[in-house]
# Entry
Amino acid sequence: MRGSTLLKALLSIIALTTLAPGAGAQRYDRGYDFSNSGGFLKKGTWMAGGTFSYSFHDNDDYNFLVIEDINSIGYGLNVSPAFCYMIRDNMGLGMRVEYSRNMLKLDDAHIDIEDVSVDFHNYHLIKQMINTKIIMRNYIPFGDSKRFAMFAESQLSFGYGQGKVANGNLEYPKGSYDSITNLGINLCPGLMAFADEHFAVELSVKMLGLNISHVDQTHNQIYYGSRNSTSVNFKINVLSVGVGIYYYL
# Structure
């Protein structure tokens, strides 16, 4: 009898805690409901395009802060094609493949800080990465506009890459070889504008991300080592701003 009474009391408490919030709940409309924001991009629309960036530098006896007589050349290349299918109005799923390559060839450089003097000669660094990303895009038009919108691209990525560093500054050249794998989750918000009926120009930036990386290193083909790293980013990096051109059909 006592057990039955406790069970009834427990069921009564659960019912009260479940129903009480709904009894007096009041829905406030703060103007952030985009469920009826209109068909900026209709279900069934395909999107294809990508971003591209390239940079090159050539230093000839250049001085930077405490580094003097810099003689070096280098470049950075990034290509990122993508496609997406709208599974519902203003929401799409797709894939992005990103290839990046960086090279630095340092012939000479000199560092002089008080009593410390260091010379660098014949350093060569090259690194390339391929990242495959599953993406989800959500579009938020500006009011009833059919031309301008904000978007947020969520990315789940897996990447593999290689890196090489050669040091010819010594009597016998030395070098290291890196094999790199990483896993990442990123959020990239941005703005887009249709230039005509199908072509759009986009501006995006990496703002929030979690990246896990593992590196296996071979040094001079004799010594082996590894490194694991985890990084969380929650800031706007001006250097990561990307401009892309996309075709919507």
Notes: Strands lie at 46-64, 67-88, 91-113, 116-141, 148-167, 174-194, 199-204, 208-219, 223-234, 242-248.
